[in-house]
Design goal:
- With about 280 residues, the protein is mainly alpha-helical.
- About 45% of the residues lie in helices and about 5% in strands.
- The chain is built from ten helices and seven strands.
- Strands 6-5-7 form a three-stranded mixed sheet.
- It is globular, with a radius of gyration of 18 Å.
- It starts with a helix and ends with a strand.
Amino acid sequence: MKHKFLSILAGLLLFTSLGVYAVPEEDRTALVNHYKQIFPNIKFEDYVYGALAMNPEAKEQYDDVMDFPPYAYDVRQGGVIWETPFKNGERFASCFKYEGNNVAASFPYFDDKTNRVVTFENAINDCLKLNNEKEMKYASQEMAILTSYARSLSDKAKVNIKIKSPGALAAYEKGKQYYYQRQGQLNFSCATCHVDNAGKFTRSEQLSMMVGQASHWPEFRAGTEPVTLQGRFMQCQKNTRVNVKEPNSPEYNNLEFFMTYMSNGLKMQTPVFRK
């Protein structure tokens, strides 16, 4: 079954005609069906919880923590940064539709004018640059704390990534290729853990399914250490002995684009606690 599933994905080729933009949706449907076979008792909407959805006791403990999240102070600090006016009197909210409410669910997106994937963090720095302010270091704790608040404005909004142009489809395909590409000393791919072996254990950690992984960032590790999605990419690649890319690299941005598309239809839950 696993080989059949992977061959289906590998056989989906990149075309440029408008009529084949259903291919990403076919990928997503195939992946969701793959997980339904492995985890028949887990509801699709619970994929946002990752491995917690596989362990009722761990999920109950998580719910208790989330009643009084230890990172609440950091999120409030992110709100202060978000609301503090720039030198010209503008604020972050002025750079986003609806003052930032329910917009993060549509990030990342592909910008045909600049021919690049634009992540939410890119949009934050674009806003700073537009207002003659110093940009934040990508994947830094400062960026994570700000986005913990900014993304919370989209909490419970459904992930809604669109692929509407040949450039967007090409970026998606590059992200997909990177996800399934074996790399490093251990010859692992992202899919080795989160598709082929989802639900199994590596040491004491149960491996989560990929669908849903992009819907809940940033995370607060141990409740106090903010980590962005691309920061997590870097951690995973270090653990699997892969040459780590720089955050905001084309490879990571395309990977984030692909992974977030795979979470389409799930409600954002952000920020969250992880041990």
